[in-house]
């Protein structure tokens, strides 16, 4: 798998993402500086977490205007795979590549804690390591993860099966209590209509090794690695 | 010339910050405060000297960057 | 431009210089100094920069060990952690700014300590914070706690350095003087450590980072009359942190440090350009010439005095090899940071500052450093309190009731509300998150090794007996590192005290240093960096003496680290001797409403023996969980293990000769609770090692079953434990 991680100024989870990608695929990802515009040869483009441009003005607003984003938009339009986590998700919504916006957490506080995600569909490259309805643990670390979209957009996302993950209780129930940041309809992540762009707030990349406290996030990366290196020895 | 862009969350978008401010004002004993909304103000020093052109410039900036039309609305005022 | 008041003894006093100190300035200069020169002397000779009251005592601290690469005197301490790597760490206070403006005070405290560490070539991998606040019911405490926690999170989360540990105490003595002590730990190759001693006559002096504004200029001057005409708005005292710029500065500096361009580097911390340029030139025994016209400025019309004393954040000063200037400039331009050559090194042994073509300061560096004041201030010893006889302290409570009250009190309750606002995992290396173990454990990228990190101090012990308290603070840090299985290597200290001109305060300081030195020596646990914060007083009332200790240890294999969470069906064994020491205990304060008696003594020989035994057992793979016994005593330690593991414990009866409340809540030192599959084997091993050990119970079920017949469910314990912060803060 040839993955590229886009590095915007102020991004800080690019190394976490590189660890997870390399662990799953055996290949070091390429670091792509935000002023580059050549994404050729990549199977997967990743927008990692952090505080691009300090999260000043609005999270992701300035990164969405970076030179690389034109290339990311074209890459996605040509059917390329894009994984956008946390600040990456915010950047994709600011760029209009995914619908909606991420508002401040309802509690108005940064939330750094475990959460549980319910897999809404497993027939995608990103979720192929899980089964539909699986519950997995992931780390939240954000101040602005409160997913918002108008009712029409939300209904469309649901209708087209584009909700990727929802915040759930450990037993799988979808409750307000599980929804710590206040996201509409407990939405933690969404897909593009072609299911090749995934944006999500929590960090699967920070739970890929027992020493990190668990491996709940590993199936996501294993699934990606398997999809792009089908002949890799089992 | 100075342009001031005021960015507010659109009506219908939950504003927890505004709610928290309203709650705090109540706690401090201010009665009769209805809905509170919090936004931001961005002041721009522009080289442009024609008020209409300055306004058009600021509006363009607001549309492209300063406000996110999914959740926010804006208004521009020009003086100086 | 008009400067209003003339430079004289009156102005010198406003700048914080005594008559004697000002006379020494006149003597060195041979003339009346300019305003800028007076500013340079006043900040370099301030308590903060010169350690004039504390230096004579700090010298007593042990600072060497075979693994110490750089001890005190550099920006941070450096120790060898194996595999060709070094850990770089330091703790520093930002107390007063955090009282004035809690969010920015705490945020810039984090920013400052980060710079001390990456200045030396280390990538910061962890932050910790030792925090002391006033009583929760005091008028400003809630706002201060909220602001400080948001500030630490706001800065640390954004720069992408995980906040992995720390401590919080509440006490009335901090009502008007909260303490914010921030610690940063970084990793560097041990052959690539960058120091601040300037070298190479003619080499360029380069300024990088943020622009200079009028932030935080000398408090004394702020209040002085000659600036009264200027608008207040132009002169903010509060420095504002910009973690985004700091993040860029980290990346740019580390990128430059991979080249051979840097001769010397120093962050601009307190007293900004003055202290960085004076220290770099002084340490290198060279002269330095600065032309302030080239300093990147955020505001217009700044004077030489203002630029030299500005404490604008996120700035660094470097001496570069002249043939590498372009390489360096390109890196900083890539990261969109200011880069300006503002001077060069000379052989004059003087600092010469020019602005608009005028020499604004010209001071000989030798005398500035060598003739800095040094005080051996009078000391008075704290009166010792007699030990408290536990049999004479009435106990009216069942163990379960006392436990439920203790674990709910502000000093012992869950800190989850705080940790949940700190990103503790960014970087992907956090093995033990806050609350999971006695020390935070952070793996080193690309190595099997991990660092164990902790901050410790028990100020109420220090007030009762500063020497015993100093000894205990160091011992507890050592113990917390042992409890995760790490080899303790070294400490950083943050000495927070009241007014040193009062003999009883200086006596506390001297005694704390004695106790610390003692523990450092016996435990082979030297001090490699530190910071002193004095004058922590409001209306003549001092804080509790607070020598906060930041401890660092290493695990050769991160997978060997143990936490405090217990599983069912394990034997719980107490290591270390118990007499039932209730003096200065939290039980005494929270239940009996008393704060008296001598604090628990630390027997350093027993401490060392118990610690080495525990660590050997952990490394042998015999231990499933380990927790040291500290605040609240044995029963609180067991309850914390039960809550972390979500499993109950059935406890056995304690020894007949010790009253139950003293046995279960006494704060005897040097103890650990170990959870092991095979208690008998551990007891045999302890006996062979000559270490006191006793089986105290077995894990399992949903309840804590207590020897006085009471029970309390783990669920009820957790509810009590987690109540305070959310209900206090209303979230």
Question: How would you describe this protein?
Answer:
- The complex is a heterotrimer of chains A (234), B (80) and C (731).
- With 234 residues, chain A is α/β, with parallel strands linked by helices.
- In chain A, 22% of the residues lie in helices and 24% in strands.
- Chain A contains five helices and eleven strands.
- In chain A, strands 2-1-3-4-11-10-9-6-7 form a nine-stranded mixed sheet, with helices on both faces.
- In chain A, helix 1 packs across helix 5.
- The longest helix of chain A has 12 residues.
- In chain A, 60% of the residues are buried.
- The mean pLDDT of chain A is 95.
- Chain B has a three-stranded antiparallel sheet, with helices on one face.
- The longest helix of chain B is centred in the last third of the chain and has 16 residues.
- Chain C is α+β, with helices and mostly antiparallel strands and 731 residues long.
- Chain C is built from 26 helices and 28 strands.
- Chain C is globular and about 85 Å long.
- The N and C termini of chain C lie far apart (53 Å).
- The chains are: A alpha/beta (234), B alpha+beta (80), C alpha+beta (731).
- Chains A and C meet through helix 1 and strand 6 of A and helix 8 and helix 10 of C.
* Unreliably modeled segments of chain A: none
Helix content of chain C: 25-40%
Largest sheet of chain A: 9 strands, mixed
* Percentage of residues in helical conformation of chain A: 10-25%
Q: Stretches of chain C where pLDDT falls below 50 for ≥5 residues? A: 220-236
**Largest interface (C-beta under 8 Å):** A-C, 30 and 34 residues
The main pleated sheet of chain C reads as: 7 strands, mixed
Straight-line N-to-C gap of chain A: 15 Å
**Count of runs of 4 or more consecutive helical residues of chain A:** 5
Decide which structural class fits the backbone of chain C: alpha+beta
- Please state the average pLDDT score of chain A: 95
Give, in order, the helices and strands of chain A.
Answer: EHEEHEHEEEEHEEEH
What kind of assembly state do the chains in view correspond to? heterotrimer
Tell me briefly what this model is.
Chain B has 80 residues and is an alpha+beta fold. Chain B is built from two helices and three strands; from the N terminus they run E-H-E-H-E. Chain B has a single domain, classed as Mth169, Chain: A, CATH 3.30.1280.
């Amino acid at each position: 798998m040839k993955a590229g991680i886009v590095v915007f100024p102020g991004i800080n989870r690019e190394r976490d993402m590189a660890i997870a990608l390399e662990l799953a695929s055996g290949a070091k990802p390429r670091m792509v500086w935000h002023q580059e515009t050549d994404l050729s040869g990549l199977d997967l483009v990743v927008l990692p977490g952090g505080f691009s441009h300090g999260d000043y003005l609005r999270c992701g607003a300035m990164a969405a205007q970076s030179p690389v984003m034109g290339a990311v938009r074209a890459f996605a339009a040509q059917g390329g795979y894009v994984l956008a986590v946390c600040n990456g998700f915010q950047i994709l919504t600011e760029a209009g590549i995914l619908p909606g916006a991420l508002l401040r957490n309802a509690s108005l506080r940064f939330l750094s804690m475990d959460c549980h995600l319910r897999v809404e569909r497993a027939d995608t490259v990103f979720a192929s390591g899980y089964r539909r309805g699986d519950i997995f643990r992931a780390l939240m670390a954000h101040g602005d993860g409160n997913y918002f979209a108008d009712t029409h957009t939300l209904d469309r996302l649901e209708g087209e099966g584009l909700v990727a993950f929802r915040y759930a209780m450990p037993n799988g129930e979808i409750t307000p209590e599980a929804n710590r940041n206040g996201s509409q309809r407990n939405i933690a992540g969404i897909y593009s209509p072609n299911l090749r762009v995934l944006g999500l707030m929590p960090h699967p990349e920070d739970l890929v090794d027992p020493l990190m406290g668990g491996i709940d996030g590993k199936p996501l990366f294993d699934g990606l690695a398997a999809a792009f290196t089908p002949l890799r020895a089992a | 010339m100075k342009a001031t862009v005021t960015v507010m969350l659109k009506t219908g978008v939950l504003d927890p910050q505004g709610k928290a401010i309203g709650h705090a004002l109540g706690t401090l004993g201010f009665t009769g405060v209805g809905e509170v909304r919090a936004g931001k103000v961005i002041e721009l020093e522009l080289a442009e000297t024609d008020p209409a052109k300055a306004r058009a410039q600021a509006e363009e900036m607001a549309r492209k960057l300063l406000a996110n039309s999914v959740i926010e609305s804006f208004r521009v005022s020009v003086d100086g | 431009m008009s400067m209003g008041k003339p430079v004289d003894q009156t102005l010198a006093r406003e700048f914080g210089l005594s008559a004697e100190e000002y006379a020494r300035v006149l003597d060195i200069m041979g003339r009346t100094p300019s305003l800028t020169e007076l500013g340079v002397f006043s900040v370099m000779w301030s308590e903060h920069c010169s350690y004039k009251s504390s230096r004579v005592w700090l010298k007593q601290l042990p600072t060497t060990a075979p693994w110490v690469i750089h001890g005190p005197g550099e920006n941070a301490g450096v120790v060898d952690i194996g595999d060709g790597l070094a850990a770089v760490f330091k703790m520093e206070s930002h107390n007063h700014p955090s009282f004035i403006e809690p969010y920015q005070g705490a945020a810039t405290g984090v920013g400052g300590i980060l710079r001390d560490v990456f200045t030396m070539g280390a990538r910061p991998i962890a932050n910790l914070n030792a925090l002391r606040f006033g009583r929760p019911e005091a008028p400003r405490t809630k706002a201060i706690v909220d602001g400080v926690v948001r500030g630490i999170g706001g800065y640390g989360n954004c720069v992408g350095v995980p906040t992995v540990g720390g401590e919080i105490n509440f006490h009335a003595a901090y009502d008007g003087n909260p303490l914010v002590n921030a610690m940063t730990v970084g990793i560097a190759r041990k052959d690539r450590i960058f120091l601040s001693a300037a070298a190479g006559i003619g080499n360029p002096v380069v300024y990088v980072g943020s622009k200079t504004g009028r932030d935080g200029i000398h408090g004394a001057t702020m209040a002085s009359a000659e600036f009264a005409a200027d608008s207040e708005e132009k002169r903010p005292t509060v420095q504002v942190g910009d973690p985004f710029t700091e993040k860029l500065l980290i990346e740019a500096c580390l990128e430059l440090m991979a080249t051979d361009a840097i001769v010397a580097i120093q962050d601009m911390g307190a007293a900004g350009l003055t202290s960085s340029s004076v220290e770099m030139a002084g340490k290198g025994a060279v002269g330095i010439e600065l032309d302030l016209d080239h300093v990147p400025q955020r505001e217009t019309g700044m004077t030489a005095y203002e630029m030299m004393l500005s404490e604008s954040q996120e700035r660094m000063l470097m001496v570069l090899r002249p043939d590498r200037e372009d390489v360096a400039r390109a890196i900083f331009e890539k990261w969109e940071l200011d880069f300006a050559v503002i001077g060069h090194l000379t052989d004059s042994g003087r600092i010469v500052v020019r602005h608009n073509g005028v020499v604004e300061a010209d001071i000989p560096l030798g005398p500035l450093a060598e003739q800095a004041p040094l005080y051996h201030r009078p000391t008075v010893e704290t009166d010792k309190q007699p030990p408290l006889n536990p049999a004479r302290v009435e106990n009216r409570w069942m163990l379960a009731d006392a436990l439920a009250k203790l674990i709910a009190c502000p000093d012992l309750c869950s800190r989850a509300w705080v940790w949940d606002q700190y990103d503790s995992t960014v970087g992907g290396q956090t093995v033990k998150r806050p609350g999971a173990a006695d020390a935070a454990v952070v793996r080193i990228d690309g190595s099997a090794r991990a660092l164990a990190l902790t901050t410790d101090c028990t100020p109420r012990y220090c007030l009762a007996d500063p020497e015993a308290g100093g000894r205990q603070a160091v011992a507890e840090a050592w113990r917390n590192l042992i409890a995760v299985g790490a080899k303790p290597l070294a400490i950083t200290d943050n000495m927070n005290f009241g007014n040193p001109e009062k003999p009883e305060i200086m006596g506390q300081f001297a005694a704390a240093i004695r106790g610390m030195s003692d523990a450092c020596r016996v435990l082979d646990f030297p001090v490699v960096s530190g910071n002193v914060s004095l004058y922590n007083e409001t209306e003549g009332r001092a804080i509790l003496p607070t020598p906060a200790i930041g401890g660092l240890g290493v695990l050769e294999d991160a997978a060997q680290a143990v936490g405090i969470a217990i599983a069912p069906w394990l034997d719980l064994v107490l290591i270390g001797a118990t007499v039932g020491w209730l003096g200065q205990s939290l039980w005494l304060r929270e239940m009996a409403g008393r704060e008296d008696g001598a604090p628990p003594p630390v027997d350093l020989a027993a401490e060392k023996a118990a610690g080495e035994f525990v660590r050997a057992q952990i490394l042998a793979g015999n231990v499933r969980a380990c927790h040291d016994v500290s605040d609240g005593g044995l029963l609180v330690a067991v309850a914390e293990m039960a809550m972390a593991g979500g499993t109950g414990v059935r406890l056995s009866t304690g020894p007949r000769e010790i009253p139950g409340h003293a046995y279960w809540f006494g704060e005897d030192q040097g103890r650990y609770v170990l959870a092991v599959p095979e208690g008998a084997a551990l007891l045999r091993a302890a006996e062979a090692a000559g270490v006191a050990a006793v089986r105290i119970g077995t894990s399992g079920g949903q309840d804590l079953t207590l020897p006085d017949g009471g029970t309390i469910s783990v669920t009820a314990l957790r509810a009590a434990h987690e109540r305070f912060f959310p209900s206090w803060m209303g979230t």
